[in-house]
């Protein structure tokens, strides 16, 4: 075998090292037999010759017994060079999510050389076990080589409040070092095959379970007994570690991207470093998958870590890399999943790599499917809920007394607000009457539940318009492959279609809102109304409403872009909250409608904001939260959870428009009564209806 790669086959007429040892053993047995026979003959003739000591077998044995020990280093050297060649050939391409600015979105950490931590005066060793006593500053590899189960390494900063601390610290410590991966060729007793592992170390895990240090692994498997044989083959499969699990793929699986015929491309998720086969938003809802959303989406940057080979022999590996014997934690001691992780040598895949992929391997990760906007996207709600919940939990664990006080204060405020309003009578009909905040909520809910089929029917087109752009875009991207390599044509089709579909959603929402307002007015007038009639009567006002809303949207964006005019954007948004009933019921449009809405909102803006906020939160949030709960508590496909979320949104989408009608009626009546308008005859009696 060649020293560099072992690709040259062994010549048939050249004995292998094993055959050389066997031949030496045969010669040894022959010489021993002759020696014993000679000793016996010498004993018979000893009185005459007196020369027996000069022909003792031990003098023959001494040089021949050493033959196997001379051969062993040659075998080991050849194996090590084969392992190095194998590790270099299949070294991964690490495609990190690009970070455009410091402390911004993306991955700030690279696979790091562990040597930057050793003898580093910014690193402390603490312990033992359940204490944080300082054992040593700048621990060395030999210190960690003692095992130290239950001890902890400690870096500057707090994982519960990381801020930019770890990113800035890591940038300083890794300056001048190269990205590194630790390769290891290993077999498993009782299992056929060979595993080539690449261990990647990151200084910080910036996921929902934030903690100092992170170890991840890539495994390439062969149907071979040693590295020399593996060099003659292609791998059989690969495994990418993902939190507590592993996703596997055959070497010829289309989902596996291979660079330069042999280097697997891996996509670590920003923050968590869980390894994926593609660029997407991946969802996890268990310990195996991770709990939350892993983002591997572009833009990205490719990193090719330097390969450092860990010897296969355990004693040699421990002597070369003493820190591999460390069984303590690689990060600051914290409660639960915020605790620092243990090292590679404590993982199941370290000693049983092939059994690990067989038992834990899954064929696919859960990529978030194309979906819609607002309440129709259960998966986005899931990502947001888990992320927000994790942040809240970290804050509570870091300041438990403050968190408890905040919860108590929130409960008291909610109880106070509920007690400050009047809830009855809650007569839903006779719109033109004054109502308290609680009465508006009760009246809206009663009307809505009584005519649920009507309002669900009005909401269905809105839901379709919200979901359609995402589904259509996914379909277009997949079907335009028929255009071959003409990327320009494909991008043009996707862009034009996307713009057209993007206009469909706000147009349908405007028409649906107008239809809901018409439905309330018709019901209050005692006239029969269905979904088709509501849309038919509302259609003339849909275009003025859409144009007015688009104008408001442009003005809001313009104000927000300047930053300094952000307060103006907030005011403009608030005074436009009654725009829908003003346009539909009063026939105004454009800035005239905006001025009228502002005139109505101004005297009771707190009440208007509270009521619109409550109904909008209910309409847009319940479906998304329900879908997220299904994701958390069931094994339903993500598409089903999104569909349930969309249906709930369809049922509640018109609720905002209905609520705006009741708020509008309340402020209009108060305006007329305040200006001395005729109170008898023009306005219905403000009395409880049967």
TrEMBL record:
Residues 1-26 are annotated as: Disordered. It comes from the Bacteria. The keyword Transmembrane helix applies. This is Uncharacterized protein. The chain crosses the membrane at residues 401-419, 452-476, 496-521, 542-565, 571-594, 606-632, 644-665. The keyword Membrane applies. Keywords: Membrane, Transmembrane, Transmembrane helix. It comes from Fodinibacter luteus.
């Amino acid at each position: 075998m060649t020293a560099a790669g072992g690709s040259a086959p062994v010549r048939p007429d050249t004995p292998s090292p094993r055959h050389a040892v066997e031949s030496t053993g045969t010669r040894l047995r022959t010489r021993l037999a002759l020696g014993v026979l000679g000793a016996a003959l010498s004993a018979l003739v000893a009185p005459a010759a007196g020369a027996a000591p000069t022909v003792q077998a031990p003098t023959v044995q001494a040089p021949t017994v050493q033959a196997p020990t001379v051969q062993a280093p040659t075998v080991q050297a050849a194996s090590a060079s084969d392992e190095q060649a194998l590790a270099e050939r299949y070294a991964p391409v690490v495609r990190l999510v690009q970070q455009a600015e410091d402390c911004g979105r993306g991955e700030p950490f690279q696979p790091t050389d562990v040597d930057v931590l050793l003898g580093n005066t910014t690193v402390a060793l603490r312990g033992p076990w359940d204490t944080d006593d300082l054992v040593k500053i700048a621990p060395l590899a030999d210190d960690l080589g003692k095992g130290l189960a239950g001890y902890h390494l400690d870096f500057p900063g707090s994982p519960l409040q990381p801020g930019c601390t770890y990113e800035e610290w890591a940038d300083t410590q890794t300056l001048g070092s190269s990205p590194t991966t630790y390769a290891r060729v290993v077999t498993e007793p009782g299992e056929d095959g060979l595993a080539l592992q690449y261990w990647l170390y990151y200084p910080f895990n910036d996921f929902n379970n934030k903690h100092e240090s992170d170890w991840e692994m890539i495994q390439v498997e062969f149907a071979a007994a040693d590295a020399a044989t593996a060099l003659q083959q292609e791998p059989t499969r690969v495994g990418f570690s993902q939190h507590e699990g592993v996703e596997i793929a055959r070497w010829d699986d289309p989902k596996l991207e291979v660079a330069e015929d042999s280097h697997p491309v891996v996509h670590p998720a920003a923050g968590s470093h869980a390894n994926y086969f593609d660029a997407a938003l991946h969802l996890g809802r268990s310990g195996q998958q991770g709990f939350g959303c892993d983002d591997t989406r572009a833009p990205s940057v490719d990193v090719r870590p330097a390969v450092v080979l860990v010897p296969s022999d355990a004693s040699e590996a421990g002597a070369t890399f003493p820190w591999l014997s460390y069984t303590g934690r690689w990060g600051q001691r914290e409660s639960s999943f915020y605790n620092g992780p243990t090292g590679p040598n404590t993982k199941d895949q370290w000693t049983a790599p092939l059994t690990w992929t067989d038992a834990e391997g899954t064929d696919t990760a859960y990529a978030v499917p194309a979906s819609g906007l607002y309440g129709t996207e259960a998966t986005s709600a899931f990502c947001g809920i888990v992320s927000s919940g994790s942040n809240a939990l970290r804050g509570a664990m870091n300041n438990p007394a403050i968190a408890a006080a905040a919860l108590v204060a929130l409960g008291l405020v909610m109880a106070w607000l509920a007690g400050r309003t009047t809830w009855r009578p809650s007569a839903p009909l006779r719109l033109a009457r004054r109502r308290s905040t609680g009465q508006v909520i009760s009246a809206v809910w009663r009307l809505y539940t009584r005519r649920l089929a009507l309002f669900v029917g009005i909401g269905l087109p809105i839901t379709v318009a919200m979901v359609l752009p995402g589904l259509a875009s996914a379909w277009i991207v997949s079907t335009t492959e028929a255009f071959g390599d003409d990327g320009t044509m494909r991008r043009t089709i996707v862009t034009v279609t996307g713009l057209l579909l993007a206009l469909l959603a706000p147009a349908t929402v405007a028409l649906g809102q107008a239809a809901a307002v018409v439905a309330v007015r018709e019901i209050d007038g005692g006239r029969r109304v269905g979904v088709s009639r509501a849309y038919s009567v509302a259609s003339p006002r849909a275009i003025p409403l859409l144009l007015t809303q688009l104008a408001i949207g442009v003005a809001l964006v313009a104000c927000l872009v300047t930053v300094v005019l952000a307060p103006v954007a907030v005011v403009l948004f608030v005074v436009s909250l009654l725009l829908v009933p003003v346009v539909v019921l009063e026939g105004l449009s454009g800035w005239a409608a905006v001025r009228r809405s502002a005139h109505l909102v101004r005297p009771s803006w707190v009440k208007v904001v509270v009521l619109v906020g409550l109904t909008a939160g209910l309409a847009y949030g319940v479906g998304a939260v329900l879908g997220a709960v299904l994701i958390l508590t069931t094994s339903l496909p993500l598409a089903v959870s999104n569909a349930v979320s969309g249906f709930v949104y369809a049922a509640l989408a018109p609720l905002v428009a209905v609520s705006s009608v009741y708020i509008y009626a309340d402020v209009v009546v108060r305006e007329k009564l305040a200006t001395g308008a005729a109170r008898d005859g023009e306005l219905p009696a403000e009395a409880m209806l049967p």
